[in-house]
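Work Package 3 (structural annotation) set out to generate three-dimensional models for the target panel prioritized at the project kickoff. During this period the team completed the workflow that converts sequence records into discrete structure tokens, so that structures can be stored uniformly alongside our sequence database. As a representative example, we reproduce one entry of 125 residues exactly as it appears in the project archive.
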Amino acid sequence: MNNYTLVRPEHLNHHGNLFGGAMLKWVDEFAWLAASKEFRGCRLVTVAMNESIFSHQVPLGSILRFNIQFVRQGNTSATYNVLVYSDEPGSDREKQVFANSITFVRIDDNGRKLHLPPRQEFIPC
């Protein structure tokens, strides 16, 4: 699954590039959207973000593409890899600027882990 966003002035740090916290927010949100489409009806929460690697600065005006890929399913959890590519102003190609993996766990109303049903691969229309 791919999602996109534009880096705007409110997303910048004190050096004038994308603030890492904004990137992590988008990664969590977009990966959760992918997981929610594949595990419909399940209450999923983030349990881990592993090996977040910021490989390049991202300037204002960049279009970011978040590529979210299912990796594995456990009894109560699902893990996704997230690669982020930047299409910077004036560039003729994207470059990878971030990578990590994120794991979601299914919980009940009291926060207890629940069995995760079989994944239903999301195929957009």
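The first strand starts at residue 2 and ends at 6.
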